[in-house]
Amino acid sequence: MHIRAPAIVCSARPHGENAAIARLMTADHGLVAGYVAGGRGRRMRPVLIPGNRVEADIASRSASQLPFLKAELVTSRAPFLSEPLPAAAIVWITALTAAVLPERSPFPALYQALDAVLDAICHAPSARGWVPALIACEALFLRELGFGGARPDLAGADWARTMEVFDISGRHVEKRLLADRAGPVMGELVSARAILRDRLSRIA
User: Fold this and answer.
1) How far apart are CA 89 and CA 5, in angstroms?
2) What does the domain layout of the chain look like in residue ranges?
3) Rounded to the nearest 10 degrees, what angle do helices 127-144 and 159-172 cross at?
4) What is the pLDDT of residues 38-80, one digit of tens each?
5) Which residues make beta-bridge pairs with 8?
6) pLDDT at 185
7) In this predicted structure, what is the pLDDT of residue 43?
8) Which InterPro entries does its entry note (predicted)?
9) Which sign, positive or negative, has the C-alpha torsion 182, 187, 192, 194?
10) Which fold has domain 2-76?
């Protein structure tokens, strides 16, 4: 296997002394995990930040082998992780992607939606501009993974209604997408969305 493609970093976990196991979302190959030599080093650590857009080079000698992964930074979303609300949204949506998608199954619509919602989180003037896109992205996850459901219509909705739909979406995600997750992964995901909900609740 040899893949070279644009990708979005969804997670990076330490592996050994200086390496990392990264999970990247691609348009044509879906979620792909790979071993990154020096992934925790000074050069690669800023590249493997969740939310970043990269050019990925992924190679393995067999389908059963964990691929070796190299990544070149294209767009850094790291500056937005210093802002509590955008950071919580980026952490949530990338962690959800890394946890619930089967590896090497293409979901081109999800790739496009993830990239679009990350851009919205980073560049919309306020959360009012990107929360509807985040809700739509969660609804797309549910549909693409076989749980159905229509995209919520929030055109003209006030903030109270938007947050009501956000809470409904969260319950669907937890009940359906996260139902078979257990242990630390489930805890981390539920906590990530709870943190996002708490920060959104502070908006008047």
Assistant:
1) 25
2) 2-76, 79-200
3) 30
4) 999 999 999 999 999 999 999 988 777 899 999 999 999 999 9
5) 25, 53
6) 78
7) 94
8) DNA_rep/recomb_RecO_N, NA-bd_OB-fold, RecO
9) positive
10) OB fold (Dihydrolipoamide Acetyltransferase, E2P) (2.40.50)
DSSP line for the chain: -EEEEEEEEEEEEEETTTEEEEEEEETTTEEEEEEETTTTSTTTTTTT-TT-EEEEEEE-SSTTSPPEEEEEEEE--GGGGGSHHHHHHHHHHHHHHHHHSPBT---HHHHHHHHHHHHHHHHSSSHHHHHHHHHHHHHHHHHHTT---PPP--TT--HHHHHHHHHHHHHHIIIIISTT--HHHHHHHHHHHHHHHHHHTT--
Beta bridge partners of 9: 24
Share of the chain above pLDDT 70, in %: 99
Q: Cα-flanking dihedrals φ and ψ of residue 148, to 5°? A: 70, -165
Is 104's pLDDT higher than 80? yes
What's the predicted TM-score (pTM) here?
Answer: 0.94
pLDDT at 182: 65
